[in-house]
Amino acid sequence: MAASTARIATARIKTANGRRYMTQLCKHWAHKFEVVHDENQGLVPFSPDRRCRMAADGEGLTLTIEVEDAAQLERMQEVVIDHLKRFAFREDLGEVAWTAVR
């Protein structure tokens, strides 16, 4: 992915279950993609031009979406949050606010 054309957005979700949710997301997507993860971080390469990076700690989960095509950014944000909320159905994560990095 060319750094100059990539669109990047990040969101921080406050939850004591960040590591668990990240692991669930990584395992879920590992059936289709070459996912790499450990207890603190994960990378889901949806395609050569779309990926999601995750970082978890005791206070929450940080999601970073990187896309080559700006038109895909909002859709990728929706996909990731939709999946996260499925795993976090016992917890109200509130409204997720994305911040454009570039």
Automatic annotation (TrEMBL):
It comes from the Bacteria. InterPro entries: UCP028291. Pfam families: DUF2218. This is DUF2218 domain-containing protein. It comes from Azospirillum ramasamyi.
